[in-house]
Amino acid sequence: MGKNLTPRNEDYSKWYNELVVQADLAENSAVRGCMVIKPYGYAIWEKMQAQLDKRFKETGHQNAYFPLFVPKSLFEAEEKNAEGFAKECAVVTHYRLKTDENNPGKLIVDPEAKLEEELVVRPTSEAIIWNTYKGWIQSYRDLPLLINQWANVVRWEMRTRLFLRTAEFLWQEGHTAHATREEALAETEQMNNIYAEFVENFMAIPVIKGAKTESERFAGAVETYCIEALMQDGKALQAGTSHFLGQNFAEAFDVKFTSKEGKQEYVWASSWGVSTRLMGALIMTHSDDKGLVLPPNLAPIQVVIVPIYRNDEQFNAISEEAKLLTEELRAVGISVKFDGRDTHKPGWKFAQYELQGVPLRIAIGPKDLEN
């Protein structure tokens, strides 16, 4: 249990950083700009993932997985997109290390092991996915192609903040191919609506839906829709985006299909994604100076039971009672933790669970048993 949090009105940014660390959600790692998502934080992300995944599947999407590396030539194929991400790419140039002869116990990059073609660590997967789709799409019968992937991406950020902006982050990215402009556009709007519905109804965060201005559009998109959420410091946070890509990627990667009329046409595309940045939105929308505040359906622990006792006899009696209560609550789908640790006092536990945003706390003492 750390020190008290810096109040929001004193230093909002500091409050946020302290909260993420003290509530045990994530921490900075030995890799510059990359975070370690801790079990408690990851459990919240998993709940979001499960809900989103369900919504994607209900709208006909399937999950697949594509490579982490994108050959540079593929990356260059869609020029606007490549330019948009060029400044923040991590690039693999060699495939082997060797022992440094002048420095025993140290390794150096083997100059003999240079890759013929550099590999970009994916900042987004359009290039590798559209190159793949070329082999999957021949005729109108192959459309629409509705694919999503849960993955990690890398964008070399220098100024990082846990969950909000890190060099590596987790996300999902949908990539769809359609026979007509109208269909692709409808898909783009549908997914932005799904994000809005999820964030508002499941995460309890109000959002504004809309289209981005030209300068703010995704590189290579014809139109970018997004959801923006208002944080407590009065700033808006982009919480999800959905892009109508027109035929840009189909043309760049030569993805054509034979239409019902027997004509060769380029397919129409969309891509859409939300990331672990939603964790930042969750924290900054609901939490207060005492710690994390979680909507009950996102809380890894929904109810915590804390025993208050003076001796073993009392503890055992309380434990029995807590066990029955736990079974009752679990039977109706509520996650419960019984904190019977004798290493911490009840007051410490109360403060810790408040910091971690557990929605409901039940204290059971000898008097409660009598009643």
UniProtKB/TrEMBL annotation:
4Fe-4S keyword on record: no
GO cellular component, as recorded? aminoacyl-tRNA synthetase multienzyme complex; cytoplasm
Aminoacyl-transfer RNA synthetases class-II family profile domain ranges (all copies): 27-295
| UniProt-listed InterPro entries | aa-tRNA-synt_IIb, aa-tRNA-synth_II, aa-tRNA-synth_II/BPL/LPL, Anticodon-bd, Anticodon-bd_dom_sf, Pro-tRNA-ligase_IIa_arc-type, ProRS_core_arch_euk
Keywords of the record, alphabetical order, are: Aminoacyl-tRNA synthetase, ATP-binding, Ligase, Nucleotide-binding
Name the Gene Ontology biological process terms.
Answer: prolyl-tRNA aminoacylation
GO MF term set: ATP binding; proline-tRNA ligase activity
| E.C. code | 6.1.1.15
Domain of life assignment: Eukaryota
Keyword field contains Nucleotide-binding: yes
What does it catalyze?
A: tRNA(Pro) + L-proline + ATP = L-prolyl-tRNA(Pro) + AMP + diphosphate
Q: One Pfam match, by short name?
A: tRNA-synt_2b
> Cross-referenced PANTHER family, in alphabetical order?
BIFUNCTIONAL GLUTAMATE_PROLINE--TRNA LIGASE, PROLYL-TRNA SYNTHETASE
Q: What is this protein called?
A: proline--tRNA ligase
User: Which organism encodes this protein?
Assistant: Drosophila willistoni
